[in-house]
Every structure is written in C-alpha cells, then in structure tokens.
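#onboarding

Welcome to the new folks! Below is a worked example of what a typical request in this channel looks like: someone posts a single protein sequence, and someone else replies with the predicted structure as tokens. Don't worry about understanding the tokens yet, we'll cover that in week two.

Example request:
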Amino acid sequence: MASTRSADEIFLIGIRNLDTLVNLNQLPTVRQVLQRFHFYLKEAKSVRNASHLTVEELSAVWFRAAVPLMLKTHAVEKLERLHNSWLLLKKNKGRLSSAAQQARQIEFTAQLDCLFDIAHADAFTMIRIEEDRKFLIDQRTERKMFISSEDKELAKKQARAEERRLKQEARRKKALALSATATATTTGDPLEESGSSDTEGSDDYQPTPAKREQKQTELGITSSELFNRNVTGALDRNKTSDREAVRLMVPIAAALGHDPSSLPLSRSTIHRMRQKTRREFAEATAMEYNPCCPIVVHWDGKILPEIFGQGKVDRLPVLVSGDGTEKLLGVPKLAAGTGEQEAEAVYSLLKQWRLVDKVQAMSFDTTSGNTGRLNGACTLLEKKMGRELLWLACRHHVMELILSKVFTVCCGPSSAPDILIFKRFRAVWAGIVHNNYHSLDLKEGCESFKLATLQFLTQTITKERQIRDDYQELIELTMIILGSPPETIHWRSPGPVHHARWMAKLLYAMKIMLFRDQRDVFQLTKAEEARLERFVLFGALLYSKSWTEAPLAAEAPAGDLQMWADFKKYEQIDPEIGKAARSVLERHLWYLSDETVGLALFSEQVTSEDKELLVSNLSKEPAERKQRGDATLLKDAVRLGDFATTRTYDMFSRLDMDISFLSLPPSQWNDVETYQAAKHRIQQLRVVNDTAERGVKLFEEYNTLLTKDEEEKQFLLQVVEANRKAVPTEATKKSVIDAL
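Example response:
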C-alpha cells in the first residue's frame, strides 16, 4: 500500500482524486480541482483534455449552487495557468535554498485550500436570491456554508412556475371550449338549444382568449395550422428570423385578401410556434425512423465557434445511411476531440434513436483518433456495442493523404498557412483569357495511363448521374490537360488556397499549367513551372481517375489493387513520386482486407476468373491481419482472390445478403435474383465519408443562426434536413406543391 500511495502522491497537492467533484457539498478548492485534474491527466494523457473534463465537473457543482459562471474557455485557461505554475515549482523543487523559490512555494501552498473561483465577473449583479449571494461570499472567505440536497428557494420558484403553467393550460382549454360553442351557435348546432352557452356567465369566463380564438376560427386558421412543419421548415431552411418572418408574412397575407391584424403574426407568436413545431417534428422523426436494412454510421469531427458566447468547441456530426438513404442523428458538442469522447457521442445517439442493433458498419476518416488500436473511436465503439463492425474507411480521405504527400515531394514542405503561388494566381484570374489554354506535353510511357483515364472520365460525364461541382471541375480540367477537352467547359473562379484544401491544390495547379503561356498576366519561373508540371502530370494520369472512382463500393478492392500497381508502374516515369504515393497507399489498404474484399464480387470490372478464385478461397482460414490489407501480399502477380478467407463471409451476414448465388458459376450470376438484390445493396453502400461532410456543412451554415439554445439547435437541424430532402434546391412550383 505504501508504494501505491507514494506513486499517487502529487508534489504539494496530495493524492490524485478518484471521486467526482459533482457530489461535493461545497464549491471545490484549488487543491481539490488540481487533484481531480491530475486524475484526468493520467487517464487522458493530454493537458487540454484533462482541463476540459475537470471544468465540466466543476461547472456542474457551481450550477447546483445557482452561481453564474465565466465562459468555459476562460475557466480552462485559468486551470491551465495554475497547472503551469505548479509545473514550474515542481521543476525547481530541488532549489529550496533559493529565497525566491521558497516564496513562490509558500504563496502557491497558501492558495491550495482557497476557492477555485470561476464565478462570472458580474455574478453579484446577476444573482437574484440573497441567500445565493451570501453563499458565494462565504465560499470565498470562511467556507462554513454547504449546498443542501434541495434548494428551497429554487423549489418554490419552480412550483410557482408550474402553477402558472397549469392555470394557463386550464384557461386555454376553457377558451377552446367556448370557441367551439360559438362556432356551433353560428352554424345552427343543436348545442344552442341545449343551453351550453351558459358557460359565458360563469365566474371562470376569460373573454380575451375566447375572443381571440373565435376570431381565428372564423377565418378558418389557427396558429398551429398556419405554422405547420412545411411553413417552419421553409422559414428555417431560408434562415429567416422571427422579425423577418413578420415582415414577410404580413404583406403576403394582405395580398391574399386576409386582414393581417386578425392572423397570429406577431413576432412572439411566430417564435413560440416555431419552437413548438421544431420540437414536435424532431421528436416524431426520432420515434418514426425505423430503417429495415443494415445501416452504416458516419461521423466527422470539426472545430466550430460556440453557438453562444465566445471560443470554439469540437462538434461531431453523426449520420447513418442504408440502401441509398441517409439520416442525420445529431451534431453533439464534445468536451474534447478524443476517440473516447467521439465513441461515447456516437453510441449515445445510436441508443437514443434505437439503432444500436441495426448498425453493421462504420465509415470514418483514417485519422489516429478514429483508427487507433487501443483508444481509437472505432475500437471503442465496437466495445460499447459488444460486437465487431465492418470498417469502411473513407477512400477519399486516403486519396487526399496521397495527393498531399505528392505535393510535398514536388513543391517542398511549407509551414505557411497559404500557398503563395496560388494566391498570386487567384489575384490575376480576372485577366486570364479562358479560351487561350495549352495542354501538357506528355512524357514517354504515359500513353497507357492517358488512354485509361480519358476512357473512364468520358464515360463518367456522359452517364446521367449528378456530379458535385468540384468533382466535375476536376474531370473537365483533367481532360483538357490530357488534350481531349469536353464539349462544354465550366471555368470556375479559384476558391480557398490553404493547405487543408487538398483537391484545391490540384485544381489550382492544373489551371496555372493550362494558362502558363499568358505571361503578360501571370509569370512563372522555370523552377515553379517544372515543380507544378510534375504534380499536374501525376494528378491527371493517375489521381483524377482514382478519385472519381472512389465512391463506387464494388470497385473499392480492385481499385486499391490497381492503384498500387499503377503507382509501381509510374516509378518508371517519376521514381520519387511513384514510391512516395505507393508508400502512403500501403499504409491504407483498407479494402484489401479479408472482410471487405468480398465487395469485388459485385464489380463489373473484375473478371469471372478472379471472382471464381475469390469464391474458392472463402474456405481459407484467416491469417493474423485484420481490417487492413497485408502489404506483404502485394507483388506483381497478386490477385484479389488471394485476400479472401472465411472472414469474408462476415460481410455478407452483416449486410443481410442471400449468398445462394455463390454455388453457381460467376457467368450466371447476373441472371439470379439474389445476386441482383445483393449487388444493388453494395452499389448503395457508402465507402467515402462525404455523408458526414454534408452534416458538417449543414451545421456550419446554421451554427450561429436562429437560436442559441443547444437543444433547439438539434431540433432545427432535423427540420432543415427534412425540408431539403422534400424540396430540391432547383425547386419548381410543382415540386414544392408535391412536397406539401
């Protein structure tokens, strides 16, 4: 025991606190906060994460005391400053002979049993209950008072509020009854003969609400009918505030022949009804959502501004997809962007939506926070769910890592936030003559890459399917670079130029190379032109095709294998770039694992012979590898079937597919109904995390708009998402009518 206690002893502070601060009956002291902070520091291995978790607990105690708090970011900064002071003392603890060191240590020790004060600067002005003011003063001085198990003043306040609510509800019901009676009287209802109108003479009669409801009934419109889910959805989607809604709806009502003064169009009524409709719609959606197919859960973290106050916070959009549909579950706020926090947030939402048993796969970016062997979000989520899931790493994220590596090889590393040559080009874009461009002169050995890329991209743009604007721009620029421009070219103005925009680097570089001869507008040095030419050549010959093909689930295993072979072959043209790209890919062979290689059975590009080999190896016992492909298997003569094992069956069972077609030769599969059904499911499978990115974009748009309440914000997102699905962006009158 002595050794254990000694190991847990913290210099000047004492034993690290294993118990939560939430149960304290006094506001925590500096010593208690630091002891709890060091407990989290040992668990989280990060000062920032430990400080956030400690402040979360600390805030809960202060909330019980009904004391207004400073901003969370300021509390975190205060705790970290205190920790830094302690680190300095610990570093110099051997210098006690120094008078200055002794003075600093005495000063630090003296404040340990004082209050760790995170009260708001105007707390005494904001506190309305005198007892709460006295409690805060006491905690800052003598610390004789305690937080009782029940706040009597608060309980009385809540009781009065509940009593007012019940009285208002009773008056509302009475007004509705009177309104119904009045309607029956005007339509000759038998109630008039039965004497039901005697209610008007009762002591409880409230003329104003009854008159208001009667006026709305005469028009045939109540506030609930006027502000239904379609109206509030349109207002929310168009980011219309309550005041703007009044300015918009009053003239529309007048133009339609209504008296605006007789309609419930005040700002407060609109605000109240929008809140009510959002909540009701979100709660109904959560209850009714019940997918009948296996689903994939997607998430993607993003640091965004707080919706209220200052500072930034980690947000985690969580969505699910299945059989071609997708649904936003929520965008929770995280105390820290760790794998544990992300896994807990994802699991909580799945549990709230009753989807835990239906999730069979995960789609995620290949960051260490997600894929860590011990503390990654994917591993921890599997532990929480009590079973293994199918790992669908985002192929676009892997492609971004490859392009980033190649750009560094060509142009060198940079610590600057922006890329200067791209900023220069963007500044002169208005002076560029768009029809004066020149394709690249290809090196020897590039012809085979050129033909394969042009054939694939031409087929892609001729198919009748929607392509994102930036993807279409990449396809068109690649075809121009390779000397086969499409019939219509959509020249787009250059956008952001910072390092996080991986695809933007290639788009910029391609445009610069196409207009490199317009030296009167934009001048390139020979060194700059040579570096960009290497980068663009790789992007046009290999990257554009792989990027465009990445969302096709059935092509993922064969695509990764072909990409590896192409990079190896490209070493004959540019050894440095070929080896760099191949080294990145070999660390991300997610779709050459024994679980996911079965996707290739539904590819139209994989030959019948390769499918036969894959099926024959389904009886092979698995090796030690899991989730990722084994780079040691990659050699010149490797085939997809070499990666298949008995674990490949797991994918079929998780995705609820009938695999009776496996007993037939692959040449007959297309005539089998079970194969077509399974193929359709695989074609709808999301192997890129664009789904989560759309969730990020949605929250970014509405982060600081319409409401600053956290719960209300989640309801708002559900309404906007539903309206976007029901009413397309390029909506016509007919499409809107059909949606209603």
